[in-house]
Amino acid sequence: MVDKVFCKCAERLVEKLETYALSGEPVNMEARFSQMTLDVIGLSLFNYNFDSLTSDSPVIDAVYTALKEAEARSTDLLPYWQKGKIARLMFDVILVYFLQIDLLCKIVPRQIKAEKAVNTIRNTVEELITKCKAIVDAENEQIEGEEYVNEADPSILRFLLASREEVSSLQLRDDLLSMLVAGHETTGSVLTWTIYLLSKDPVALRKAQDEVDRVLQGRLPRYEDVKELKYLMRCINESMRLYPHPPVLIRRALVDDVLPGNYKVKTGQDIMISVYNIHRSPEVWDRADEFIPERFDLEGPIPNESNTDFRFIPFSGGPRKCVGDQFALLEAIVALAIVIQKVDIQLVADQKISMTTGATIHTTNGLYMNVSLRKVEQEADLALSPSG
Fold it and tell me: Which UniProt keywords apply (predicted)?
């Protein structure tokens, strides 16, 4: 997965960045990271190449339209599009959308566009499921033992179909679409804010690049390299502390309960947990608003909810913790390592970076940076040239 998907997509991103480096044009890193993570999730889930970094297609447009609509619905004060209760978790919203479209959605332009987008995605995913099922059945493929790896198609869809579990195509489609929503925007936002924080701290950026150069020696990262990229991982951890995705968790009470502090909760009530406020609370963090990757011990375990006494919960915690946490961290560190290995980045001057909060924390107007080819890369090229 690391070389076939993560490295492949990150290399495409770097190729795109190199064109900006040569032209001198600023690049919106938020948009580029979003495209890269869409490509990653497409290959990982469906073995489907969105190729969004280099091409446009109706499917790509549909994905972004649906994602924007899902996020808009998570923050709409008047959810005219939905029947029933107002408060819904963002990832519930996109699934409810498949089933509940009332009359008003047929005449509101935004909703008409969103409905068409969802239908495009749904039809595409259904076609992929049908084709993959036919291939698995034809090859009489089935998982044996504890491990399963298909070199030609390492996608989650192939794994699920080969597992032969009884699951309907409708459920499989909706589960995959949930993964598409949850796994795309979050990692893109993590990379956006990490590169932003590093651009504001040249010492930290230099330290991260030195580590990447030392560990990788100019090659692409392998799975076993990740545990050696300790400082880079702490930069990502610290970025997720300052800009968690999602910034708010919502849980619904299944029974009446009383929380610590004598807060009474009724069945069906939604409880909002502000991850953002916990992560920036001076009561639990020293210099809470500062970017300090070293606050997490380099030789200690990767911080999570358990070893930080639930002060650090970017993936939530407990039985409903994000199941894709390790996937997201691996994707982020591989992508970031390749980017800072190949290019230098500098924030465009006089640019105001502000936050827009939804299911994740976005920049309001993008994150524009000037990129240039790393000098270490240029020196290596000269050393290898016939005249060098």
Answer: Heme, Iron, Membrane, Metal-binding, Monooxygenase, Oxidoreductase, Transmembrane, Transmembrane helix
Strands (E), the chain: 27-28, 248-252, 257-259, 263-265, 270-274, 343-347, 355-357, 361-363, 368-373
Residue 324, exposed/middle/buried by CB under 10 A (0-12, 13-18, 19+)? middle
Residue ranges at the known binding site: 322
Q: What is the reported pTM?
A: 0.83
Q: Are strands 248-252 and 270-274 parallel, antiparallel or unpaired?
A: antiparallel
**Run of H or E residues at 195:** helix 169-199
List the chain domain ranges: 2-384
pLDDT digits (tens, 9 = 90+) for 288-323: 999 999 999 999 999 999 999 999 999 998 888 888
Please name which of 225, 295, 161, 296 lies closest in space to residue 7, comparing C-alpha atoms.
225
Helix, strand, or coil (residue 232): helix
Q: Which residues make up each annotated binding site for heme? A: 322
Residue 61: how many other CB atoms lie within 10 Å: 15
Q: Which residue has the tokens 């993959």?
A: 132
Q: Distance (Å, rounded) from C-alpha 267 to C-alpha 253?
A: 5
CA distances from 250 to 97, 223, 235, 359 (A): 19, 33, 27, 11
List, for the chain, all residue ranges whose pLDDT scores fall below the cut of 70. 71, 73-106, 139-154, 164-167, 376-388
CATH topology of domain 2-384: Cytochrome p450 (1.10.630)
Q: Report the C-alpha gap between 339 and 52 in whole angstroms.
A: 17
* Token output for 195: 């590169």
Query: Residue 12 is encoded by which pair of tokens?
Result: 């495409």
Beta carbons within 10 angstroms of residue 105's beta carbon: 17
Q: What is the pLDDT of residues 237-282, one digit of tens each?
A: 999 999 998 899 888 899 999 998 999 999 999 898 999 999 999 9
Picking from 245, 213, 249, the residue whose alpha carbon sits closest to that of residue 231 is 213
